Each structure stands twice: as C-alpha cells, then as structure tokens.
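Lay summary

Proteins are chains of building blocks that fold into shapes. Our project writes down both the chain and a compact code for its shape. Here are two examples, one after the other.
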Amino acid sequence: MPRTIALVEDDAVIRDNYKLALEAQGYQVNAYRDRPCASQAFNEKLPDLAIIDIGLNDETEGGFMLCQQLRQLSGSLPIIFFTARDNDVDTISGLRMGADDYLTKDISMAHLLARIAALFRRTDLLSTPKVQSDQYRLGHLLVDASRMTVTWKQQPVALTVTEFWMLHALIRHPGHVKSRQQLMDESRMVVDDTTITSHIKRIRKKFMQIDDTFDHIDTVYGMGYRWQE
C-alpha cells in the first residue's frame, strides 16, 4: 500500500501543487485546508507522515496546535512543519513541540522529497522485526537501535525519530566530536545547522526532565557535539 501523507495548507494553489507532486511520487496524499478538518481526520485515522503549515487561515499558530495533537496520538509519527515564515523562534518552537523537521516554502521539491524519504527510512525500523537487539549501554544510558528505544536511569526518554538517530550517532563513538555534517550523514538526515542545534537542545531537555544533573552532550564550539562520560 502507498504511504499516506497528510498535507495541511490553507493556500489552495500551494496545497494542490504539492498534492499533485507528492502523488506523482507514489504517495497517497490527504490534503486539508484548515486545522478543524485536519484535526477531525487525525482523530479518525493517523497518516504515515504529516506536513503542516504553521499559520492556518486566521489561526496564526494552528499548525503548532495540530502538532501537539499528533504527538499526543503518536510519539513516533514523522511531522514536518512547512511554512513561509523563516526565523529561529518559529524553528525552535516547532521542534520543541515535537516536529521532526522544519522547511520553508521556497525549498525545492527534490529537497522536500529527500527529507520525506529519510524520515520514512527511519520509521521503517520501528516495524522491522529483529532477531537480536542492537543495544548500546553507556553508564545510565541504554539505547536499543533495533527497537528505537532509549532509557536513562531505567526511565524511558521519548525521542522523535530524528532525535533518536542524532543521539545514536553521538553514542557510537563516545568522546569523539561529531560535526553537524557528520551528524547528518550518520543519522541519514538532510537538515540545516539551525535545525541540528534545535534538535540537540531538545534532546538535552528531555534527558534533563528525567535527571536535572544530566550533562553528557557537550557542545564543542566551532566543531560540533560529542557524548561525554
């Protein structure tokens, strides 16, 4: 069966253009013009991935509200914010609410398709049965790559798929600095520097919600990040 993408966009021309382009790639696209329509549909059945505009008609943050709803319904469903607004505040706000990526509407179709494909590749691991688990244990940290689960001090850490693979890239070589490009390559992401910085902040915050003394992800200024014991 084709993957189902929910496209929530209030501009009819943009909505129709992207719907046709995504359908040409073999995706099934359910398009919605506003938050109420999308919200009702999500309560009935979840898509495989959601692309959501932040400003929806007269609701300037309607997309954020939809993201919160989706995260309550599923902790792993890939969510992409798609907007004409391009500033750090929106990016960080969107990622804090649980989105996996943030794109502006001037992005090329090839770039959008690459990001969608990368998110689907990662979510495939959730449904792929594994005979043996692929576990990493570093002190209080336990990461199971085959099940995409993370625990800290025996408590689960609810990471999105993007956050999971960024953490996985860091812990494979603890103490080694990973540049932003290496984090993208090793976690099979296509994102910009601002997005990576926002993801790292969100990962730290989720660990600190469990343990306020958590300090194992170091920023090495001008170079990147590392997992430090």
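And here is the second example, written the same way.
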Amino acid sequence: MSSPVDSSLSNRSRLLFLAITLLSFLAASSVPTPMYHLYQEALQFSSATLTLIFGVYALSLLAALLTVGSLSDYLGRKPVIFVALLLDILAMLLFIQADSVAWLIAARVMQGFATGMATSVLGAALLDTDRQQGPLVNSVAPLLGMACGAMGSGLLVEYAPLPLQLAYWLLLVLFVAQALYVWRLPETVSAQPGVWASLRPTLHVPPQARRALWLALPVDVAVWAVGGFFLSLAPSLVRTATGSTSNLIGGGLVAVLTLSGALMILSLRHHPADKILRLGASLLAVGISLILIAVHTASLLLFFLGTLVTGGGFGSGFLGALRSVMPLALPHERAGLMSAFYVLSYLAFCLPSLLAGNLTRSLGLIATTDGYGAVLILLSLAALLGLLRQRTAKACIAQES
C-alpha cells in the first residue's frame, strides 16, 4: 500500500512528464519558424505560400480537435497520447526529408494533426492529475514550448551543422523516449462506449460553460491571431522593416512573445479571471501599437519592446480565458471542452494569418501588417469595453442586493 508521500511524488512525476510532453509538441510546432526564410530561399516560394505552409498545420490541428479531441474520454488517456507521439515522430521524419513545398505541407499536416490530438488529451490528463496546477500548466507549457522551439531552432540554424535537419532529429529522439515512457503512467479514465460517435466532428461546450466562453472569446481571438502572425510572418516583417538578416531574429521574437506571456501567467495565476482578461486586452492594444510604430521607424529595439508588451497580453489573455472556462467542466467533459476551446483558438490562429499572407501579394507586407494590427487593436479595445461593462453590471447587481 502506497504512502501519501509516495502518492504525492507519483502525482508530481506524472504532472512533470505530461507538462514536458505538452511542451515538446508545442516546441516542435514553432521549430520551422526560424527556418522559413531558408526554405523560401532554397525552394523559391512567396509569402502567401509561406502562410499556406503555416496554415495547413493549424487547419490539420483543427481537424484533429474536431474529430479525435474527445477520444481519450472514451478510450483512456494513454493510448491517445501514444498515437499522437507516433504521428509526430512521422512528421519529424517528413521534415528531415523535405526538399519541396509538397513535402513541407505534408509534414505540417501530419504535425498539426498530432498536435491537435495531443493538446486536448494532455490538457485533460493534466487536469485529471492536478485540478489546481493543471490549468496553470496548460497555460504555461504551450508558451514555454513555443519559446524553446523557436529559440532553440534559431540557435541551431545559426551555429550548428545541418540547419534544416538537426532540430528535427533531436525532437525525434525525444518523442521516441516519451512514447516508450507513456505506458508507465497510470490510466486516469476508464474506457466507456461511444468511441465511434465521438469521432463525428462536433464542438462540445457544456451548458454551464457557454456564457463564460463567449465572454472570454474576443480576447482569446485577439491573442491567438497575434500568435499566428508571429509564427508565420513576423520574421519576414522584421527583415523587410529593419533590414536585419540574422537567423536569430525570428526565433528571438517568438521567444520574447511567449516567454513574457509565460511570466505573466505565473505572476497572475492567483488573480481573478475577469481582471486577468481585462489586463490582457489592455496590453495587447498597447503592444501591437508599439509594434506598428517600430515597423515604420525601422527600430529593432522598439520591435522587441512591443513584442514584450504584446507577450504580456498574450499570456494574461490566454490564462484569463482558460481560467474562466475550463474549471466549469465535469471530469467526463474536460477533453471535449478543451478541444472546443482550442478549435476556436486555432481558428483565430490560422485564418487571419492566411488572409494576411494572401493580402501581401496585392498590398505588400507593411501595409498588410498595418491593417492586421489595426483590426487587432480594435478587437482588443472592444473586448476591454465589454469586460468593463460586465464588471459595472455586476457591481450594480451587488449594490442592489
């Protein structure tokens, strides 16, 4: 019979493994970002094609969330995590062999489906393991993962041999080790009927969580639209606006965005969700404004400062939305609600950036950035206004009662 201390250590090690695995999937997703200009130079494709390569990843991820997002509620967590790891192993092999746009698209499609499957099941498994720390890890691990992937990839591209393969080989080894270890975890969900029905594309938002989701959605949309732009077009934008040719710039920008977001999450984790959402909307509006000024003044320093502020909005907006919604789900609803939350988030992640990539053909990258930024500033301010009205309404009701 295990002691409470043994049980605590077991939970802690399980939480650590799940967090690292989630971090690994998101790290892999941002690894191509610093390489995009190398792919463009080698394969001679446009910014619109670049956003297509980025966009198919997000669309494939959405397809996974819509079909297999709640699969682990019926089959159990371990087999679904294992299959997601196998798919990402295959994606790494495709990246290693990629010598055309078609190969890159195939690799991103495979990676997107694997990541979509992984984010919902790992998110649910983290909540199963620790109801208090699970939401925090779900918020921080993706941001830290994207930072590690982008910055690590940038360093390898700049200083290591095999700039377009080495990062994928390292991830391949990591995923193989995780696929072997996952079977040592205890299962937290018992199998139940309804597996085939769960594969029908659907968004399952429990009734008790719907109002909270719609209130948080405008900030969440702005947050993920910023993330999509940074992971697709930001490196090209910095090169165009400032003339910098360093391979570290693209990865550095993503790292600043996501690390500042992660630090904001850690510092705000004990604050009420509504206050965090309001802060996120405010920081996004200010940060994006600074980035637009940096673009027109060709200031790399101001670009990074604006990214730092925007990252604070990214982290606080994401945490506020997640904290507002996920605790409202019952245990058997967690994977389904996590899947629905990520579907809405990743629609905002890919569709605006795909549109921006196509607009660069006719408007150019700078003008497209201006329009993109203006829309996100307006969305952030509208969200902030709605949240302030909600706070005022609550205060009036409290006074009347």
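What can we say about the second shape? The chain has a mean pLDDT of 87.
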